[in-house]
Amino acid sequence: MIDKAGLKVAGVLAAFLEERVLPGTGIPTDKFWHGVADIYRRFAPENARLLDVREDMQAKIDAWHEERAGRPVDQDAYETFLREIGYLVAEPASFAIETRNVDTEVARIAGPQLVVPILNARFLLNAANARWGSLYDALYGTDAIPGAPAGDGYDPVRGEQVIDWAKSFLDRAVPLARGSWRDWSGGEPMLADPTHLVGRAGGNLLLRHHGLHIELMIDPAHPIGRNDPAGLADVLLESAITTIADLEDSIAAVDAEDKVAAYSNWLGLMQGTIQASFEKAGRTIVRRLKGDRHYIATDGTELVLPGRSVMFVRNVGHLMTTPALLLPDGRQAPEGILDGICTSLIALHDIAVARRNSRSGSIYIVKPKMHGPAEAAFTNRLFDAIEDLLGLDRHTIKVGLMDEERRTSANLAACIAAVKGRLVFINTGFLDRTGDEMHTSMRAGPMIRKGEMKDSTWIKAYENRNVQIGLACGLSGKAQIGKGMWAAPDRMADMLAQKDAHPRAGASTAWVPSPSAATLHATHYHEIDVFARQGERSGEAVASLSHLLTIPIAPGGNWQPGEVQEELENNAQGILGYVVRWVDQGIGCSKVPDIHDVGLMEDRATLRISSQLIANWLFHGVATPAQAEDALRRMAVKVDAQNRADTRYEPMAGRENQSLAYQAARALIFEGANQFSGYTEPLLHQFRAHKKDIT
């Protein structure tokens, strides 16, 4: 560790910042470190006090439920109690957010949003380059249309299915004045709305609908185009309008080396230099960031469209600390403060140089896991201080507010008010939100089964209130209102059938797990005019707070033994399948087979639900410790079998006392009721750090 203005900084982090990040920013090294030390002096104690407030509130809520054990929740008395302890605050007077200098992609275009682990450079590049995607490829290679390609080469039958689907989509989004795109034989198309045609590039046509672009790739010499009457070789859709590069739930970063690897990839994005190489068919492929796309507009002027997604970065929340930096008293420093400083400093290479990412000169930081308006206000003042350190205008750093904790949901308008000068994003995060629902009310009674949560009273109010409050606070046209992840990347037909509910709800963005999913989900934003839907919903009354605060306790809680075993095994399998990759291999997000061998994108949010549910059932005697232990042992055998093709995989079954991953999964369950806010990070970090030490 190296002394920097009284702080102890890991050598690898200090070298990275001083040698690779600070040069070119105009900020002297000594001034930077003294500024960092001052920020920690001012904000680290308050960070700790806010966490103490959380713990104190949770203890009071636990005691309230314990005093009333066995009795139904008196909703009026419950809400009065929550106000008395400061859990619920007064609603602010009517206001509108005041955010300025927001990129069009964030404020005025509705479309898909990718979330990608920042430690994986290849995935990060794929996501950044997913601004444009081939509709033909997304359809051909997924189950979005029935069947699958036959043989190893091109399947012309499958190809015809793809082309028919794509032209049917064009008929709906940008219809011709007469007939179908299936009959178009080339030349100038006669559109029902001529304003949909906005440009050309060679023989290609550029169309625009609901703010999103469609490029018709005309190439009669192409293997696909030569069999098309118009020479249409592909349909490119503007897809992932924005992307969140994630430092939080989807990565395993437990020390200075991990943090530097993550920050290095963010630096590569901001400088435009990031690249990744991999082997394919016996040759090395190098992937780089794509450039902008150039057209001639219909009025003869040059039209340039971004080639890449606008990048947000998700910092960690207020809880975790990092060994990469020690405070003067020797304690680990709050990691969220370090993320805020470092990701903003790195973003200077974008906004102060070439503006490759944000043409408006903004830095987009998503801040997760905040509990209530006091914590949101803390983030606002922290970002003020970081702007002062870096010489930035006030509110250059924008904030995305994750509505994923119960106290934030219940006080959403007050949370938005606390960051109203820099807010660019709110969303609903069903998974983490469910985990916090369970933990907050751990002692209220046994929770309903995980699969029933989506139909519960609180979640319907939650999803509606988020949009309704966002619109009432003036987000439309200024900031994103988002919805959560589609977690099944191999089930694109189901996604196409279901995920239109998000834009239909008035959400201007929703999360997708892959570039192909982004392209397919983009079709929903052509089918639904999101900003028109927001106008229709803007006058709605806000859904009931009492409904939001209705605890999802199972009435009676009298499950049959088979149902208890099924629920234990389902959750134990999910916990083990995710944790074994996190602890043993440092993989924070991946496609993990569920108990039915369906691949699901898993991160710490899903882990939080499963561990909290079993912990809750153990607490209330729905299941016994022996039953939970038995489920873990049986599911270890299944997870081992699901990973048998992975040469790096370390089996758990029969090695329960030696496997750190197994021990971590067990701890998440049996210590779950007492984990801070029900979070999984402290235990995961502990076991992953131990694993790295011994290997």
UniProtKB/TrEMBL annotation:
Name used for this protein in its record: Malate synthase G
Keyword vocabulary terms for this entry: Acyltransferase, Cytoplasm, Glyoxylate bypass, Magnesium, Metal-binding, Oxidation, Transferase, Tricarboxylic acid cycle
Subunit relationships: Monomer.
Any GO BP annotation: tricarboxylic acid cycle
Malate synthase N-terminal domain: residues covered: 13-68
SUPFAM superfamilies, alphabetized: Malate synthase G
Catalytic residues (UniProt): 314, 603
Family classification: Belongs to the malate synthase family. GlcB subfamily.
Gene Ontology CC terms: cytosol
Cofactor(s), names only, from the UniProt record: Mg(2+)
Location of the Malate synthase G alpha-beta insertion domain: 154-184
EC code: 2.3.3.9
Malate synthase TIM barrel domain sequence ranges: 310-537
Localization annotation: Cytoplasm
Residues carrying Cysteine sulfenic acid (-SOH): 589
Catalysed reaction equations from the record: glyoxylate + acetyl-CoA + H2O = (S)-malate + CoA + H(+)
Organism: Sphingomonas populi
GO molecular function terms noted in the UniProt entry: magnesium ion binding; malate synthase activity
Function: Involved in the glycolate utilization. Catalyzes the condensation and subsequent hydrolysis of acetyl-coenzyme A (acetyl-CoA) and glyoxylate to form malate and CoA.
Domain Malate synthase C-terminal intervals: 564-645
UniProt-annotated binding residues for glyoxylate: 314, 404, 429-432
Residues bound to Mg(2+): 404, 432
Organism domain of life: Bacteria
Pathways involved: Carbohydrate metabolism; glyoxylate cycle; (S)-malate from isocitrate: step 2/2
Chain positions recorded as acetyl-CoA binding sites: 115, 122-123, 250, 287, 513
Originating gene: glcB
